[in-house]
Amino acid sequence: PVSAGMNGSAIGNFSCVIYNIFLMNCTWQAGRDAPADTQYFLYWQKSRDEEEVECELYIKDKNHRNMGCIFQNVSIGTEKAYFLVNGSSKDSLIQFYDEYIDLYKIEKLMPPSNITVNCDEIKNDCIIQWQQPQISHSNKDMCFKYETNIKYK
């Protein structure tokens, strides 16, 4: 559907990242032609079966305009999540912005933990071990690739 409202009033540069396993941070920029009093509101829906939820913790700019959101206790499902940012202004109608996002694609993984190195000078080799990072989605044992960078002192 075409969004009603003044052209150029919808947000731009919308992006979200999931970090620290269960936190999600979404940010955006005000529409280039949006009136100065425009306030934006973010809603998301994790799956078609769940209720749409408004942001509880907005990130505000110096003019007290909502320019982002922090979500807590996020879990990643298998469906694309739906995001909607709409706005309001006393001067005009504001166009909405919406997008479907695969949450697993925006998860920033933690580094591996409990890294140990045991070297044997006689055999001239080392064994490096670690625990895989925690992730929030269900395919926990798939697709991990590691790169090691070894520097001799």
Could you walk me through the main structural features you see in this protein, from its secondary elements to its overall organization?
There is one protein chain. With 153 residues, this protein is mainly β. The chain has a domain of 94 residues: Immunoglobulin-like (Sandwich), CATH 2.60.40.10. The chain has no helices and ten strands. The strands form three sheets. A four-stranded antiparallel beta sheet has the order 1-2-6-5, with no helix packed on it. The protein has a four-stranded antiparallel beta sheet with strand order 4-3-7-8, with no helix packed on it. The mean pLDDT is 87.
Strand and helix layout:
Layout lengths: L11 E8 L3 E7 L9 E7 L7 E2 L3 E3 L5 E6 L9 E8 L8 E5 L11 E8 L4 E7 L22
Antiparallel strand pairs: 1-2, 2-6, 3-4, 3-7, 5-6, 7-8, 9-10
How would you describe this structure in keywords?
Ig-like_fold; 10 strands; Immunoglobulin-like; Short_hematopoietin_rcpt_2_CS; four-stranded antiparallel sheet; transmembrane; single chain; 153 residues; mainly beta
Give a short overview.
This protein has no helices and 10 strands.
- As for the CATH topology of one domain, it is Immunoglobulin-like
Net shape = elongated
Strand content: 35-45%
- Percent helix: under 10%
Mean pLDDT: 87
Q: Sheet bearing the most strands, described?
A: 4 strands, antiparallel
Give the number of DSSP strands. Answer: 10
Strand arrangement in the largest pleated sheet: 1-2-6-5
> From N to C, what is the helix and strand string?
EEEEEEEEEE
Assembly level: single chain
How far from one another are the termini? 62 Å
Q: Structural class of the secondary elements?
A: mainly beta
Protein name: CSF2R factor
InterPro entries: FN3_sf, Ig-like_fold, Short_hematopoietin_rcpt_2_CS, TypeI_recpt_CBD
GO molecular function: cytokine receptor activity
Subcellular location: Membrane
